[in-house]
Amino acid sequence: MSKVSTRQIVFERTAVLVITVLFLLPVLWLITTAYKPSNQIFSIPPKLGFQPTLDQFRGMLSYFDVVSLLRSSIVISLGTTVLSLLLGVPAGYSLARSRSRYANFFAYFFLAIRMVPAIAALIPFYLMMRDIGLLGSWWAVIIINTMLNCAFVTWMMFSYFRALPRDMEEAALTDGCTQIGAFLKVAVPAVRSGIIACVLFCVMFSWNDFLYPMFLTTLDSKPISVALLTAYGTKDVTWGSLGALAHFSTIPIVLMALFLNRYFVQGATNGVQ
């Protein structure tokens, strides 16, 4: 290996390490804050060595109903993901198998829907949910998140299905399978990795969503993403409670992302051909 190649590899790895550390420092600070006594959180100079304590967790658990918050986040995320897949996967398949020359246009149109600024859709949707009596419920957030995530799923699945050879489905049709049967038994299993990537994207979008749950839910139906705002008081910020509650907000989604990492990368890089 030449000296130039060795230097390049060392430089690249050093750059990746520095960037990773810079991105992880705020997360590390927030995590360690949850285990520090309140009087040491902003001590100067900062204390790298400290006696860990669970006081922040005790205070947070006495103030927040974490089980209810997690239940709301899980219900909203799973409800949004299931509905988005039920609507988006068949829609993507229909576009991929369409012989219309406008199929690409419609695929990008669905992607554009996902890019709509959240605040632009909030006010009319708020009024709509109020008029039909769903304001303050999980369904209000599930419906609007499904509208956005379903469009994203349609765009992604269009790409996956279009890359799938038609011969497989035609062989199934020749063997007596119906069009729906060929879709369910042949096409869907063949794009399993794409569906898993869509699941991960939908769960991440819904779990981390803040604006819609903030205005469309009540105290009993708010997810954990909104509860984090409670740490910001009128006089100060209870950083210890924020760090403790952030554990419950970030650990589930980080574990899911790590477990499905290869599908996430594949889904992110597999754009419309």
Automatic annotation (TrEMBL):
<dbReference type="InterPro" id="IPR000515">
    <property type="entry name" value="MetI-like"/>
</dbReference>
<feature type="transmembrane region" description="Helical">
    <location>
        <begin position="15"/>
        <end position="35"/>
    </location>
</feature>
<keyword id="KW-1133">Transmembrane helix</keyword>
<feature type="domain" description="ABC transmembrane type-1">
    <location>
        <begin position="70"/>
        <end position="260"/>
    </location>
</feature>
<comment type="similarity">
    <text>Belongs to the binding-protein-dependent transport system permease family.</text>
</comment>
<dbReference type="Pfam" id="PF00528">
    <property type="entry name" value="BPD_transp_1"/>
</dbReference>
<dbReference type="InterPro" id="IPR050901">
    <property type="entry name" value="BP-dep_ABC_trans_perm"/>
</dbReference>
<keyword id="KW-1003">Cell membrane</keyword>
<feature type="transmembrane region" description="Helical">
    <location>
        <begin position="239"/>
        <end position="260"/>
    </location>
</feature>
<keyword id="KW-0812">Transmembrane</keyword>
<feature type="transmembrane region" description="Helical">
    <location>
        <begin position="69"/>
        <end position="93"/>
    </location>
</feature>
<protein>
    <submittedName>
        <fullName>Carbohydrate ABC transporter permease</fullName>
    </submittedName>
</protein>
<feature type="transmembrane region" description="Helical">
    <location>
        <begin position="138"/>
        <end position="161"/>
    </location>
</feature>
<keyword id="KW-0472">Membrane</keyword>
<dbReference type="GO" id="GO:0055085">
    <property type="term" value="P:transmembrane transport"/>
</dbReference>
<keyword id="KW-0813">Transport</keyword>
<dbReference type="InterPro" id="IPR035906">
    <property type="entry name" value="MetI-like_sf"/>
</dbReference>
<feature type="transmembrane region" description="Helical">
    <location>
        <begin position="182"/>
        <end position="207"/>
    </location>
</feature>
<feature type="transmembrane region" description="Helical">
    <location>
        <begin position="105"/>
        <end position="126"/>
    </location>
</feature>
<dbReference type="GO" id="GO:0005886">
    <property type="term" value="C:plasma membrane"/>
</dbReference>
